[in-house]
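Q: I'm a student working through a structural biology exercise. My instructor gave each of us a protein and asked us to get a predicted structure, then write a short paragraph describing it. Mine is DUF2187 domain-containing protein. I'm not confident about reading structure output yet, so if you can add a plain explanation after the tokens, that would really help. Here is the sequence I was given:
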Amino acid sequence: MKIAEVGNIIEFKDGLQGIVEKVNENSVIVDLTFMENFKQLDVEEKTVVNHKRYKILYGTND
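A: Happy to help. First, here is the predicted structure for DUF2187 domain-containing protein. I'll explain a few features afterward.
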């Protein structure tokens, strides 16, 4: 399992996307305001996602 790094864009939970702001031991903190439709989704600006529950879309090495 590849762990995301700060600045990576990840996808999780049925298509939500965000930018990784902090990497913890078991999870990442993600900024969801990256998504164009963020305001229509009625979700919090940031969320925590377990490492097992996301896919890295764009990495710092891409």
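A: Here are two points you could use in your paragraph. DSSP finds one helix and five strands in the chain. The chain has a mean pLDDT of 94. It's a good idea to check both against the output above yourself.
Q: Great, thank you!
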